[in-house]
Design a protein that fits this description.
- The protein is mainly alpha-helical and 171 residues long.
- It is 40% helix and 9% strand.
- The chain contains 4 helices and 4 strands.
- It has helices at 40-57, 71-94, 98-116, 137-144, and strands at 17-18, 25-26, 148-153, 158-163.
- The strands form 2 sheets. The chain has a two-stranded antiparallel ribbon. A two-stranded antiparallel sheet has the order 3-4.
- It is rod-shaped and about 110 Å long.
Length: 171
């Protein structure tokens, strides 16, 4: 005789048989009355099922089973809608802002022009005025509007070009 282990419903009790319907290991206390290898749960299900079948064959109406609300479907639909909304937001938010992109390109253009305009001693120009004829018109407009700012430091041996997004603040 092979060892079945413990009863699935009563830990610590040795299992004496395996139910022929659900295949669970069960102890003697779980055995259905007048059965050799059927657990009490499966025996109850069989008797209820047989009684229901007799009522159906006799033409009786079965007890109405209350209709379950499909909350799971609603939850999935809500999550899908949220996912679509989030994806749309991320796609729109992930696009680079054209004003910022143009500003960054303009800063690069001005920086390149400033680097190319150093004098013989390696000093950078004091202002951007001498460079304006060499720069593209949109960049010149950004400089005149104050969106591109230029400053020199340390006896004109260092400089900074910045892009201002908002209105200029008084310094």
């Amino acid at each position: 005789m092979k060892e079945l282990g413990e009863c699935i419903r009563h830990p610590g009790e040795p299992a004496l048989f395996r139910c022929r319907q659900c295949h669970d290991q069960a102890c003697v206390g779980c055995r259905a009355p007048d059965e050799r290898d059927l657990c009490g749960t499966c025996a109850q299900y069989r008797s209820e099922s047989a009684a229901r079948e007799v009522r159906v064959l006799a033409g009786e109406e079965l007890d109405e089973v209350p209709r379950r609300i499909r909350w799971g479907r609603y939850a999935i639909a809500l999550l899908v809608a949220l996912d679509i909304g989030l994806a749309g937001y991320l796609v729109l938010a992930g696009r680079p802002d054209t004003a910022i992109t143009q500003g960054v390109k303009a800063v690069d253009t001005v920086s390149q022009a400033v680097d190319d305009s150093r004098d013989s001693s390696g000093r950078y120009p004091e202002t951007l005025a001498p460079l304006l004829p060499r720069l593209p018109e949109p960049v010149v407009e950004m400089i005149r509007a104050g969106n591109i700012q230029y400053e020199t430091y340390a006896n004109r041996t260092d400089y900074e070009v910045s892009f201002v997004l908002g209105p200029r603040s008084a310094r």
